[in-house]
GTP-binding protein era (Solanum tuberosum), 365 residues
Amino acid sequence: MLLSLSMKPDRNMALLDDYEMEELDFVPENPNHRSESVCKCRICCCAWEAECWEKKKNWGRRGREREIYVAVLGKPNVGKSTLSNQMVGQKLSIVTDKPQTTRHRVLGICSGPDHQMILYDTPGVIEKKMHKLDTMMMKNVRSAAVNADCVLVVVDACKVPAKIDEVLEEGVGDLKYKVPTLLVLNKKDLIKPGEIAKRLEWYEKFTDVDEVIPVSAKYGHGVEDVKDWILSKLPLGPAYYPKDIASEHPERFFVAEIVREKIFLQYRNEVPYACQVNVVSYKTRPNAKDFIQVEVIVERNTQKIILIGKEGKALKLLATAARLDIEDFLQKKVFLEVEVKVKENWRQDEGLLKDYGYGGHIQAL
Ligand SMILES: Nc1nc2c(ncn2[C@@H]2O[C@H](COP(=O)(O)OP(=O)(O)OP(=O)(O)O)[C@@H](O)[C@H]2O)c(=O)[nH]1
Ligand SMILES: [Mg+2]
């Protein structure tokens, strides 16, 4: 099954809307409702620690019982986000054909009648870190894996088999021999069955994983086998989240991600990588469309010119494509305003990166 944004997530996933924020008299530290200060729930990166926790503690957690945490790791472009979306049953992570699309750890909740898995989709593991952003993205990988009860390492079946040591090293470090690890051989639809068998054999022989399962995340083939493997390995805990919610990032996180996806799809070469998207204002209006103001930060004026295009046409195209998906996602009409700004070398600026929500860490309970 192909996933689309029109598969609407439950509105519960929003933590605080503008009205709640006003009521609570909160001044956000950064535009995307994320900061280094970490919510006590240890999952989200939201800045409003106390209230967020207040809100969530009634969500069914009992004492210190366990949920199942699953980290989805792998190199860029292997299909981690596609697999995570399929497992959750909703498009939470953006997907493009370009490597390094995912920059944060994205939490998805997969609830069944008798289980609840909490999945972390992560940025692709890269060896060469060109910018501080890359380093912080790798921190996000580690923060997803540090509490994981099990790890899925996704590899691309089309690629020549290769060791996964560096992926495990980056992700789980010293813990690598302690957590059950499944190698997910993805994109099996792109190779012949005989080749799949050879790849399986190679990975079974030359990697230190508990099992190898071939899947085609894009078409949903083998995804149930992955879930069964996770369930077979782990003790079941009580549901932490209400069964009908799929994530707990605030809506503005998904709005920014949708705009970023459209940038990746519309622009080429370095441009998408030089873009950061922030939601600067999100106003819910009872008698009018929601008003969303987004800024796209680029590193150079030349990139700004490309983004805007001749007579603003490119930016208009981008804003329309983003708005349509945002409306699908939120299931309501919105007014979307997109502005492009230049902040030189933001990818190297630790302060800015933190403001943009990278490098948040997870607090162990
Ligand atoms: N044919 C085929 N394509 C797939 C499959 N899974 C993912 N893809 C494609 O592979 C590309 C990358 O998918 P993503 O899910 O964004 O990969 P990722 O590992 O999350 O990538 P990063 O976030 O950049 O690390 C997209 O074009 C997907 O449509 C699959 O099973 N079969
Ligand atoms: Mg991804």
Notes: The chain has eleven helices and nine strands. The pocket of guanosine-5'-triphosphate (ligand 1) is lined by residues 74, 76-82, 95-97, 99-102, 123-124, 186-187, 189-190, 216-218 (CB under 6 Å). Residues 35-233 form a domain with the Rossmann fold fold (CATH 3.40.50.300).
